[in-house]
Amino acid sequence: MGVEKLLLAHGGGGEETLSLIKDFILKYFTNPILEPLEDAALLTNQISRLAFTIDGFTVKPIFFKGGNIGKLAVTGTVNDLVVMGAKPLYLTVGFIIEEGFKIKDLEKILQSMQEEAIKNEIYIVAGDTKIVPKSEVDGIFITTSGIGEVIYSGISCKNLKPGDVILVSGPIGDHGACILAEREGIKVDIELESDCETLWPVLKPLFESGIEIHAMRDPTRGGLAANLHEWAYSSQVNLVVEEEKIPVRPQVKAFCEALGFEPYHLACEGRVVIALPEKDAEKALEILRSHPSAAEANIIGQVLDHSSSPQVYLKTLYGTHRVLENTSGELFPRIC
Amino acid sequence: MGVEKLLLAHGGGGEETLSLIKDFILKYFTNPILEPLEDAALLTNQISRLAFTIDGFTVKPIFFKGGNIGKLAVTGTVNDLVVMGAKPLYLTVGFIIEEGFKIKDLEKILQSMQEEAIKNEIYIVAGDTKIVPKSEVDGIFITTSGIGEVIYSGISCKNLKPGDVILVSGPIGDHGACILAEREGIKVDIELESDCETLWPVLKPLFESGIEIHAMRDPTRGGLAANLHEWAYSSQVNLVVEEEKIPVRPQVKAFCEALGFEPYHLACEGRVVIALPEKDAEKALEILRSHPSAAEANIIGQVLDHSSSPQVYLKTLYGTHRVLENTSGELFPRIC
């Protein structure tokens, strides 16, 4: 188009919108379902059990070590499908972008999205782009919605049972620490990097293994603590996790200590927390660890008894038990 | 929650997010699929032909005569499904909201969304809410994604045939004129009102009637002109529409004349443009007009010959033909 920045006209729905779609969007998101550019994508799969989700992404900075808002928008929605036992199939994407946004940056984002789509063997089948005056939006917001086919049924945050074992697939807090450090310009000696990654390759073998899974969640906003509190509340059970067993990278630990908060409240974007019967725990761990992205998977705790005022406990390094507080407050806006 | 305004903490993913969902979102969007609050909604319909779409809404003002951003976000996505021949089934919704947004206003929006959902017999099955600092977003943005079951196949913007007749279901430009007037504070003697409305009740009888439909579109951003240009380009045909036959309300006409532009470029949010074989045109018109929202439906033009440099013509009130320009430029940001 010979322009370097997005104009309000690119969102007008007329000539310029069509060029934006044809010259840039279709250049990256090329697939036979999107290309007809109709008002809705037409799918012909015979799907009997469908999972359907949506997630908005406002992360700032939009480019960060380990990913960018586009990669995050695909992996985030894919992961929400996967942790419900679904094979991701199709995504739709809505962009809200400030006037003057660099087209080169948009292209980097589109390319990342397509790379993730290919990695997950999914198509981005429909989209929408709005351009908003600079004073009314900061950078770019992306909302992705996804559908998938449920291949493993019964996963639910209401499904934790006393005696269940709790696993995590890798070190926690990487994404949250990375974003906070980059946004606030906090200099750390060791580099922090987001764990932003699709969970499909990690979890597919688990779904196919025949082991029993009770609950599964990717601890994004609110981190591990919010994840565990949601489970405790939904299943009306007490939970305990052990500090010593929860994998945290040294640089994340150092970052947290320096800033005076705990990694349990920091977002992950490529980790999964799983609750399953003890009998299947070792096998699950073995399957997880066989994938490079989950090599540090570990059993971190267990489900205690039923309770009408459920609580989450942390067994500290000193062997004492304390309540692990739910994440709260406004420390972490625009983390995802 | 005892608070009147949204806080950054409401988007943090922890305690306050859960209260926002439980105290407000679920109060309006109540249905058995959303209520489990899992990472993705689980659907059990056997759907063989699925339509899937997404749309972002940034309209300003967020409340306007005839609707608000919430009503628009449901009708807009529903209409994108319906014009592809699909019965709408489920919606997901992503909110991006500025810190300090009045909860009373959010409730009005949620209520409108639920009212439209009920009108369309659909469920809002999953959602996401991000709260962003005031300096980084203006008010509220809503992205809705929808799936539907295709009950009439073959509709496509590539499917216009020479000889086809073009119909519109009612007066054009109401939404665009209303939003522009309200936003710019333009005082007009006669009140302008958005046509924001679901097309499902209007079009369902048409799908069931056995008549042949070639193309169908709701002329939102870019208005009738962009709609016709997209069709001409996609089907490689010349089109002609007649000024005298295109319904435009007198107040919209007056508004356009006063501001020096044409109603063909103004968005509609409750109208549909249809191309179908001449043999079915009268029957289609009769079916459309039998619904109160399409009482002013009219045949406005026809498809001429095939062309490799397709054009859209307007037969003026004086009987002359001129080219109807595509919508372009940045006159209309945040119209939807």
TrEMBL record, chains A, B:
Residues 38-150 form the PurM-like N-terminal domain. Pfam families: AIRS, AIRS_C. GO terms for biological process: protein maturation. It comes from the Bacteria. Residues 161-306 form the PurM-like C-terminal domain. PANTHER family: CARBAMOYL DEHYDRATASE HYPE, HYDROGENASE ISOENZYMES FORMATION PROTEIN HYPE. Belongs to the HypE family. This is Hydrogenase assembly protein HupF. It comes from Thermodesulfobacterium commune DSM 2178.
